[in-house]
Every structure is written in structure tokens, then in C-alpha cells.
Amino acid sequence: MKKVFIPALVMFSLVAPIATFAQISDPSVPPTSTHATPNGIDVPCISAALDTRDTAIAAAFTALNASTQTALTTRTPELKAAYALPTRAARIAARQAAWTKYNSALKVAQTTFKTQKDAAWRAYEAASPACHVPAGTEGNAASHVNG
How far apart are the first and last CA of the chain? Predict the structure, then answer.
């Protein structure tokens, strides 16, 4: 009995994955969407969602960069003017004011950037199910590192 059972089990374990693969890649099975690939994802749909998301994130980075440059170009002359003041107390107060203004501008820029980036990801995640991308499996916000 063991002599027949073990070879049969080995043969079945080798044939079952091949039969399953043949079913998945059968071209006679119609896709669920006119643009769906064999994995069921509507590629043109997800491509458009990716373009929209990444364009929005790129715009958020551009705005962050512009805000940072504005904060720097504002801070520099304020610090130069502070060093030109006659008293030590006035210089310290002016430098502190310049740095406080600069740090506040950077904080606002970072907050705005994060809000814009998160909105882009939320829009992408809302569009993904319509493209037949399984939720939480591919390209979700948890998998992104810096954008």
C-alpha cells in the first residue's frame, strides 16, 4: 500500500501546480474587464491613478521646495540686519525673531506638504478598487517610503 500511495502523492504534488497554472493562463477565459490582464488588474485604469498620484506628489515636493527657498531668502537679510544693530540685546532679539519666523515657515511648509502627499495617496487608494487592484496588497500607502 505504501509503495503505491507515496509515488501517487508525489505525482499529484507535481501535476497539481501545473494544472492550476494552466487554468490561470488559459487565453480562452475572458477577462473581467476590457483592459484586464490575466491577473485581473485593469492596467490603463491603475496607470492613470498612478500618474495622478505621482503628479500630485511631485507638485507637493515642488511647493515644499519653493516654500523652503522663500523662507531662506527671507531669513538671510533679516539676520544680516540683526547683526547691524548697535546693541547686543537688540541683535539677539532680532536674530531670534528671524529664526522663529524661519522655523515657523518651515513647519507650515512641511505640514502643507504632508497634507498634499496624504491626499494624493488617499485619492490613489480610492481609485485602486475600481482598477481591480486587491486592497492592501499592492502599492498601498503603508508600503511607501518617501512619497
Answer: 60
